[in-house]
């Protein structure tokens, strides 16, 4: 993974322009893939995406934010009243005590105590309000990331990877949490106290106040330099964390091939390197902070020393009251004391800002396969008509990161036909299936279902019309029954069992420890590859789509398993239009029609018998398969 770069001029500015569909110009098979902006961790987003995200997150809390601001203003006023009271005590109350009048000093002491109490009460109130805001914001943000990631098209997920998404939802949200719960209150407190103190110093003695204001200039430069440099360091760090998470999830998701190919050692070495890169990025961030702390302390100490010296001479010369100098020194200490921590707060602020930038980039992405604004309903199916007609009308397709996979492609599948698509690996079979399932939109042309373009169908109609059973036959955590019910969320237990019986899965499910209620991820709930496919078929049967696409599993099953799957396949295909991406030639025998693909084109098309009797590519494949059975 490349390291994060600050938004550079090479990145497209407007993701919306990329959101209308895979507009990449087809470059001809084998054309060089264009550089993918997704290789960078910071996704291209409009300039104000970060601010807009923040605004929308805080929008629901406007009143609470005002309350928090007022509480903090009053609390800081109470805190900063202390040195003023000390100055009054030294210059007025103590001389009065010498004359036997104690009222002023007692009033000062009571005032000091009152301010302390008031500031404590207000601070507690403020912390509660701020906690409610920050918790709500974090929950909202995590929810948005999940919802948005789910809504983005397959094209996005293939390019962005799940590891990066996990990094966004965990470590990036965590750094924002750190700022909101630990740093923000203090950061605002420090800034607010600086404003109060400057005003009070100017009020107490305008010349000392002005000298303090002058010291803000080098301090401001130090902060700006630190902010600029640490932003780069934090971006790098957040990218490095994401790279560690990506490697981790990739390895654990692919643990089987890792074991099979003894990839443990090279993986370990690659992981160590990523860990070291993270360590270096972290080290850079810490170093930046160290530079800032040393620089800002120096400025603070020089300022305090100069003001004390100058003030002392003025007190000695009678030009300044002692109490005023004491109050000024107290204020200066209050001003500069949190300067180290200001570095830390700015640190977490920078880290959170870098994270927010990445999250805003993610949330600014638009689905490349959007739901239509004005969906067209599917025409009613005539009673007894099996499935729906599918037409590929002058379709062309290129993946965004590759050359053209389907050069102008036309195909008509009559309703109810079972079509097997065969061809060499990389011929474009799965691409054809994915276009029919509308995982992608064609670069050119249309895919029509009973005459309605897929892009005009509402998602509900589309999912009811076309269902794809993919190779992995993925099972979600939950029970076997839950997994079948996904096909039809309001299905009754009877319907679930009927579907399983029809598919031939009922017996093996009953034999599981808790039958239909067996948790598929728990011990004892382990089910074989063939059984997983049966569950996926039962799910598809329950969904009862007009068009079913099977991207057949390439892994070979044992003979009884294969037979069970073949039987289930016949059941699930019955009464609908079906497209099978066939990896096993045994499957082809079920089909009414076979399409042979090569380089994104259909080179043979006919019934299995006709193609076998012809002297074409399929006949050769079939002969080779028959020979392998002998
Ligand atoms: N997500 C993707 N991004 C870029 N190129 C892709 C993507 N998926 C597939 N391709 C390319 O498109 C071409 C067709 O791939 P496709 O998966 O459709 O072939 P296939 O016939 O189904 O192959 P197989 O039998 O191996 O599954 C291949 O050259 C492949 O490299």
TrEMBL record:
Keywords, alphabetical: ATP-binding, Membrane, Nucleotide-binding, Transmembrane, Transmembrane helix
Chain ranges passing through the membrane: 65-90, 102-122, 187-204, 210-227, 319-336
GO molecular-function terms, A-Z: ATP binding
Chain segments annotated as coiled-coil in the UniProt record: none
Domain ABC transmembrane type-1: 66-351
Domain ABC transporter: residue ranges: 390-624
Bias-annotated ranges (Gly residues): 21-30
Positions with biased composition (Polar residues): 1-10
Pfam family, one: ABC_tran
Protein name (Swiss-Prot/TrEMBL): ABC transporter ATP-binding protein
Organism of derivation: Streptomyces polygonati
